[in-house]
Amino acid sequence: xxxxxxxxxxxxxxxxxxxxxxxxxxxxxxxxxxxxxxxxxxxxxxxxxxxxxxxxxxxxxxxxxxxxxxxxxxxxxxxxxxxxxxxxxxxxxxxxxxxxxxxxxxxxxxxxxxxxxxxxxxxxxxxxxxxxxxxxxxxxxxxxxxxxxxxxxxxxxxxxxxxxxxxxxxxxxxxxxxxxxxxxxxxxxxxxxxxxx
Length: 197
Ligand SMILES: [Zn+2]
Description:
Blueprint: E1 23-25, E2 32-36, E3 39-41, E4 45-48, E5 57-78, H1 81-86, E6 94-101, H2 107-119, E7 126-127, E8 134-135, H3 142-159, E9 163-186, E10 189-192
Parallel strand pairs: 4-9, 5-8
Antiparallel strand pairs: 1-2, 2-3, 4-7, 5-6, 5-9, 9-10
The structure holds zinc ion.
Residues 8, 10-11, 13, 26, 28-29, 31 line the site of zinc ion.
């Protein structure tokens, strides 16, 4: 992809991307901009520190963090009510960050990460550079991330025991930003290695 017309919003140098990465790093000043709808713009992003003790190649995986209010107005379930009640320790309700993996990484890993991270919000140590690793290519648009956050909630609701008969809810997105989480790649397997100290 050659983006002839696009210039770094920081220094004005032309921006290029070899892959489909929507996060474009300026080769002149290092600033990262978001490429969307044929334009480059500023983007807020953070980088989480990697944990020690993992083997494999360190890769920083981009996620869209969709902060949203989730208000369930009405829910009717038949059967499995008791088991649902018992397993309701991790509720997907209220205001929270929805983690939506935005990288071109096999779906099996993204699906699991999205659910686990959204249910058990990790405590992160942030760092200022992609130390010791490289960035994974970001391929998902912001708007799609919002839809995927809502799908994540619906998947969660349908996977817990009992038959979901009625679900009325409001899903309101407050903000969306980019977060890079460290993962370690061995052969074709990815394992998140987030520092919690
Ligand atoms: Zn620049």
